[in-house]
Amino acid sequence: MDTKECGILLVEDNPDDVLLTQRAFAQQNILNSITVVGDGEEALEYLFAEGAYKDRKGHPFPSVVLLDIKLPKLGGLEALEKIRSDPRTKFLPVVMLTSSKEEVDLVESYKRGANSYVRKPVDFDEFSDAVRQLGLYWLLINEPPPRT
Predict the structure, then answer these.
(1) Cα 93 from Cα 116, distance rounded (Å)
(2) Is 67 in a helix, a strand, or coil?
(3) CA distances (Å), 88 to each of 28, 36, 110, in order?
(4) 9: which strand partners?
C-alpha cells in the first residue's frame, strides 16, 4: 500500500508538540506520511481540498486526523463539528490528541463525534508508546468505512 495515500493529518499549533509527535512516529517505525497544519481553519481547507490544498494529488486525503483542542482561528472542537457535518468527512477517523485535562473537553469531543480522546503524556517514552498504539490501531488494524 502506498503510504502517500494512507497519511496522517496532524492539526497542532505548538511546534514542540509537532516535533515530538513526528519523532514518536519515526521511533515507532510508523512510516505513513504526516501532514501538519497549525489551526482548525487550515485543517478544513486541507480536508475539503480548498485554497492552498486544491491539488488532491499533492495533498492526499488522510486515513486519520490527530486533532488538538486548543487551536488558533478555529478550535479543535469547532473543526470537529464541521468535519462531522460534511458527508465527505463524516466518517473520517478523528482522534483528539491533546494535553487538555478538562473533563468538559473530553465530553464535548465525544458529543461532537470524536472517535477517540488521547491525552498527551508528559514523558516522551509514554508518549512514544501512545503514538505506537494509535498508529497500529488507526492505520493498520481499524477497518475504515468506504469514502463517499
Answers:
(1) 8
(2) strand
(3) 30, 20, 20
(4) 35, 65
132, containing H or E segment: helix 124-135
Q: Is 85 exposed, middle or buried (0-12, 13-18, 19+ CB in 10 A)?
A: exposed
Dist CA 23 CA 17 (whole Å) = 10
Torsion of CA 108, 116, 86, 10, to 10 degrees: 110
Distance CA 74, CA 62 (A): 20
**Tens digits of pLDDT across the chain (148 residues):** 333 455 899 999 999 889 988 888 888 888 788 999 999 999 999 999 999 999 888 888 999 999 999 999 999 999 999 999 999 999 999 999 888 889 999 999 999 999 999 988 778 788 878 888 888 788 877 787 777 6
Q: Which CATH superfamily is domain 3-139 in?
A: Response regulator (3.40.50.2300)
Going from the C-alpha of 118 to that of each of 69, 90, 104, 129, the distances in angstroms are 11, 20, 14, 12
Read off the C-alpha cell for 87: 458527508
Grid coordinates given for 108: 464535548
